Amino acid sequence: MTSTISFNDSAVNHQTFLLVGIPGMQERNSWMAFPLSLLYLLTLFGNFTILFVIKTEESLHEPMYLFLSILACSDLGLTVSTMPTMLGVYWFDAREISFTACLTQMCFIHLFQWTESAILVAMAVDRFIAIRNPLRYTSLLPNTVIVKIGIAILCRACCLLFPIPFLIKRLPFCRSNVLSHSYCLHPDVMHLACADITVNILYGLVIVVSTLGLDVVVILVSYILILQTVLSIASHTGRLKALNTCVSHVCAILIFYIPMIGVTVVHRFGRHLSPIVHMMMANVYIAVPPLLNPIVYSVKTKQIRQRIWKMFQ
Question: Which of 33, 50, 206, 294 could form a Cys-Cys staple with 46, CB 3.0–4.6 A?
Answer without folding.
Answer: 294
